[in-house]
Amino acid sequence: MRKIRLLPGMKFMSGSVLYRPGDILPDTADTLDLVRQKKAEYVGGADEGNSPALSAETESYEIKNVRTLEYLAKERDIDIPRGTNKAGIIALLKAWDIEHAGGDGNEGAD
Q: CA-CA distance, 92 to 35, in Å (whole number)?
């Protein structure tokens, strides 16, 4: 089963449950529409190693709020020093992405 995460700035009501940014949504027709509208994204599962999704996520760090960025860092086991601002968290996330992507940014080196 695919996991769908609600993007920052969005709330979604399914049944009697209110989902907030970063929450994992059930895989339903309504949530698939949210993905098509770019209000939610696929995470984990078979789509996890997809490099276009990785590059889209790194480009969207700037539009995410600090709480969501902290959540993403926690998912990746990144330690955030006390007092780090949003730009610092983004830098840590991008550095982690480059380190774990295996050659991201060296497209002409093939």
A: 26
**Degrees (nearest 5) of the Cα angle 96, 64, 76?**
30
pLDDT in tens, 60-81: 787 788 888 888 898 889 999 9
CA distance 67 to 21: 9
Cβ atoms within 10 Å of 3's Cβ, excluding its own: 15
Using a 10 angstrom Cβ sphere, with 0-12 exposed, 13-18 middle and 19 or more buried, the burial of residue 40 is: buried
